[in-house]
Amino acid sequence: MMKRSPLWVAVIAAALVSTASARADGIPPAALDAVKKATVRLRVFLGNGKIAQGSGFFAGEPSVILTNASTLGMLDPSSPPPEKIEVNLDGTRPVEGTVLGIDGVANLAAVRVAGDDLPPPVKFGKAAGVTETQDVYILGYTPVKDREQGKDLTVVKSSVSGLRKLASGVPSQLLISGGTNFGNSGGPILSSAGDVIGVASNTKAVPQPAIPAEAAANFLNGRISGLTVDLAFKDGADVKVPYRVTVVDPLKKLKSAEILFWVGKPGPQRPAAEVEPKPAADDFGFKAFKVPLDGSAQVSGELTLPPRPDNQSYWFRTTYTDGDGKNHWRAAIGVRPIPVDRTPVTLTYKPKAVGYVQLTNDAELKLREPSGETHSLKMNVHPKFREQRAGMEAPVRFVHNYTGLDFSINMDNEPMNKAGIQAMIQQLRNVTADVEMAADGGVEKAKANVNKVPPGPREDMQIITDQILQSVDLMALPLPSGEIKPLQTWKAQRVIDIGPSWASVSSAVDVKFTYLGVSQQGGKTLAVFEMKGPLKTKRGEGINVRGNLDGTVRVDTETGEVVTSRLSVKADMDIKLEKATWTGHGEVAMTLTRSDTPPAPAVPKK
Question: CA 568, CA 360: separation in Å to the nearest integer?
C-alpha cells in the first residue's frame, strides 16, 4: 500500500540530466573500434511484464558481458533473475543471455551468452590516474525518443568531475559531468587513450557517479564482500560462533578464502589492506579458518573458539585470493559476544510501570524507473520515548511520551526538505501514543495521538509515529506458555512497511521465533530468541513483494519484557508510482533498547 504526503511529493521531484553525442576525436581508431564491437544492446524482460533497456560490453573472459545489476532488475543477490535477457550484438543480432551473478552494492552484473563469432573481451584500464576536466567517452545505445532505445551505437563525450576512493585508496566512484541515460547505462567509459576506465550507471545525480574499472575488475575476478558473526553459544569448555560469508564470484574465479581470528584489545575497526597487515603488539591466539567455497553467494558455518578473556575482544578478518592470484585483506572487526547457555526457561509477561525506550529505524529503497533511471531513497528515524503504564489491571496499557527524535531523509544521497523536517520535529512534544499489550507480551493495538500538532506537519507526523509504532510491534515478542526448551519454535504474523514511509510497500511476514538460550548481561538474566520469516504480498494489493526478515530479541527473565531487539529486512518489490510500475529493492534495519532509567542527554557537537 503506497503512502504519500506533501513531503514525499517534494522528495520524488528531481531534474533530468540531458545527454549530448559527440565524436570520439582523441581515441586511437583501433582501440575505439575494438570497444565498439564489444558493446551490446540489452533488452531485459522482467517478471512484472516490463522490458528494461540498457547496454553492456564483453569483458573478463570470452562470452561474458558486463552491465548494471539495475538493468536486470536485480538489486540484491537474492533477487529473482529476469525472465529473459536479449543481448543484441552490433545492436541488431539477438542472442539470449544468462545471469552469472551480480554485485548490488557496485551495481554490476555478469551475463553469459552462447554463439559463434563473438567479440573478444575488452581489457580494463585504471580510473585511479584520471584528473578533473579530463575528457571521457561513454559508449552505448542511447534513446532515440522517450523510453525507446536506439539500435545504433553512439559515443557520448563527457568529462571527469572527480574520483572518490575507499580508505585503502582503491577508487570507489568515478564522477563524470553527464552523458549517461537508460540506453547507455552499463556501457563502457573510455579515456582519450582508448582505455576502459569505468562503467556507466544511469542516475539523475549531478555529477553522475559511474563505476570505476578497478571495481569492475574486482567483481569479475571474485571477492569476499561481507562477514557476519551471529550469536555465540557455549559448547562445553568452548564457544561456538556461527558465521556467514558473502561471496561475489560470478565467473567462479575466486581461488581461496579464510577467516582470520585472534584475541586483542577492544577498539575501532582495523582497515582493509592490499598487503598483509601487521598484528598489534598485544594480539594473541591467532587461528585461520578456511571458508568452503561451494559456488553459492553465501557460505555459513561455525567457528570453535576458546572462551573470551575479560576486557578482550574476538577479532575477525576475511582474506581471499582473487582470480588473478592477488591477495586481499578486508577490514577487521572486533566483537565482545556474550555466549548463551542452552537451558530451558519459563517466562511470564509482567512489565514494570515505567520504562525508557530508544529505537532506530533505518530504511533504504533503491528504485528503478521504467526508463531505467535509478534512485536511492533513505530515511532514518531514531526516537526516544518514556512509556508509562496506565493502571495495573488487565489488559496492560502504556502511554508513550516522546522525548527526542533524530530524523533525516535523503534522495540520491542529497538531504531533502530540512526546514520541513525541523518544523515537524519541534512538534514531537505534542504527540503521545496509546499502546495495549496482549497477555503474552505482544502488541494488541497501538495508536498515536497527533491532534495537538498543527495541520501543516500533522500528516507527516502521523506517518512517522505510525512507523515508530510498527517498529515497536515488530520487535515485541509473544511468549509461549509453560517451559520453553532450547531451539523450540513458534510463529506469529506481522506486517512491515518496506522503504521510507512516504514511498513504502506493505508486506505480511510469517515470523518464526526460536529460543536460543540464556545469557548474563548488565546484572540481568536474559533469554535470547531468533526471529526469521519470509515476506509475502498482502492479499488484494496487486504488488509483488519477495524477501526475508531476520533478527534477535533479548527478554528479561524476571519481567518478560523485551530489553533489546534487532531485526533487518531485505525485499524486492514492484511499486506503482505515477501510473507506472517501478522495480525496487528495500532494506530496513531496526533496533530497540529498553531500560529502567532515562538515557543520558546527548553531548552537543562542537
Answer: 11
